[in-house]
Amino acid sequence: MKLFHAPGACSLGIRVLLEEIGAPHEVITLDLRAGGQRGPDYLAINPKGKVPALLRDDGSVLTEFPAIALWLARTHPEAGLWPTGLEEEVRAMELLDYLVSTVHMRGFTLLLVPQKFAPGEEAQAALRAHGRAVATEGLAQVAERLGDRPFLHGARPGVTDAALFYILRWAAAVGVALPDVLRALDDRMMARDAVRRALDLTAA
After folding, report:
1. How far apart are CA 30 and CA 7, in angstroms?
2. What is the pLDDT of residues 39-77, one digit of tens each?
3. Can you give the chain as a three-state secondary structure string?
């Protein structure tokens, strides 16, 4: 497998899952600031022009964080990254969708890159403030969902924790305050060898 990844992007969460699974894979790094995601070679792989994209061993390509994450988890059930049982699955999907479509897209996207959506400093400042409010409220709700468990997935991290992990990197970058339980979860994630490999902090 080949994962097309950009440092600082949500594809970090997929790197974490690949390392947790231990599946052989290659990471192809794109420079988003230089427009690597819009180069003809990459657009031939993923016409959406964004990361992550996963080139599977059969030559097919998966895109979008939830789809890739779910495929990895379901094809490697021994890793225990996704729950079993209908109620547990729909609750995990509910949380994953909230993390990606609300906290990420409506919160941090507006906070980090308001210039993509509006010209002018005043409009961008308003979008940035709105994004910060959505992100802050969203993380508070995620913290309530976490409660006193070590991870969103339970005793060990899973797909939802991988999504939260990349979001917590963005929170740190822009100074969004984290509830104590989310800081503790982040510390537990950072202590994992798989996470450290995904961040290139240890040898693979």
Report:
1. 8
2. 999 999 999 999 999 999 999 999 999 999 999 999 999
3. CEEEECCCCCHHHHHHHHHHHCCCCEEEECCCCCCHHHCHHHHHHCCCCCCCEEECCCCCEEECHHHHHHHHHHHCHHHCCCCCCHHHHHHHHHHHHHHHHHHHHHHHHHHHCHHHCCCCHHHHHHHHHHHHHHHHHHHHHHHHHHCCCCECCECCCCHHHHHHHHHHHHHHHHCCCCCHHHHHHHHHHHCCHHHHHHCCCCCC
pLDDT band with cut points at 50, 70 and 90 for residue 204: very low
Domains, the chain, with CATH or none: 2-79 (3.40.30.10), 86-192 (1.20.1050.10)
- Report the alpha-carbon distance of residue 68 to residue 73 in Å, rounded: 9
Length of the chain: 204
Read off the pTM.
0.95
